[in-house]
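ok here's ABC-type transport auxiliary lipoprotein component domain-containing protein:
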Amino acid sequence: MNARVRLLLLLLPLLATGCSAISALEDASEPLEVYELRTPQVQRAGTRRNVEVVVEEPVGSGALAVERIMIRPAPLQAQYLPGVRWADPVPVMLQTLLVRSLTEAGALGSVGRRPLGTNGDYAVLSELTDFQGESGEGVSGATIRVRLVFRIVRERNATVVATRAFSATEQSLSTDAVAIVEAFDRATTRVIADAVPWIVSHTR
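and the structure:
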C-alpha cells in the first residue's frame, strides 16, 4: 500500500465527521415556528393603592425553563414538539404575563420585574412545577398541565405573607402544534386569572 492510499484512508473518518457536523449545524439553523400566549383578561381589582410589587421570574427545572414546547409521552420522559418553540423561555414568558395582568388589574401603584428604588414593597416569587403536555399510547390528543406555586414576600422584613399553588388542566384534541398551544393558552389564562386577585389581596 503506497503512502497516498494510506493518507486517504486516514482522512476518510475525518471527512465523514466533518460532514456530520455540517449536517447538524444545518439542522440546528432551520427556523422554528414561534408561538406566544395571550395576556389573560382580568377584572379590575378595586381602588388603586400606592404599593410597589416586583414579580420575580419563576423558577423551574432545566427541562421546563427553555423555549421548547414540552410533551411527556411517559411520566419520566421529556420530549419537545419538533419545529416549534415559544417566543421566550417559559419562565420569562410567564413573568411577562403576570406583570401585564397585575398591571391591568389596576389596584397596585407599580408592578414590574425590578423595583423602582432599592426594593419594592412586596415581591412575588413563584416555582413552576408543571408546564407540559402529556400524551400516551393510543391517545389522540394531549393533556396540558400548568401549575405555579406562589409566595408573596414583604420586602422590608423578608417575611413570607402567603403561599398558594394554582393549577389548571386542559385537553388538546390532537397533537398538532396549534391545538396544543391553544390548550396551553387556556390553562395559563385560568392559572393567572385565579392568581391575580389572590396576589392583590395579599399586597396591602
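+1. The longest helix spans residues 3-28.
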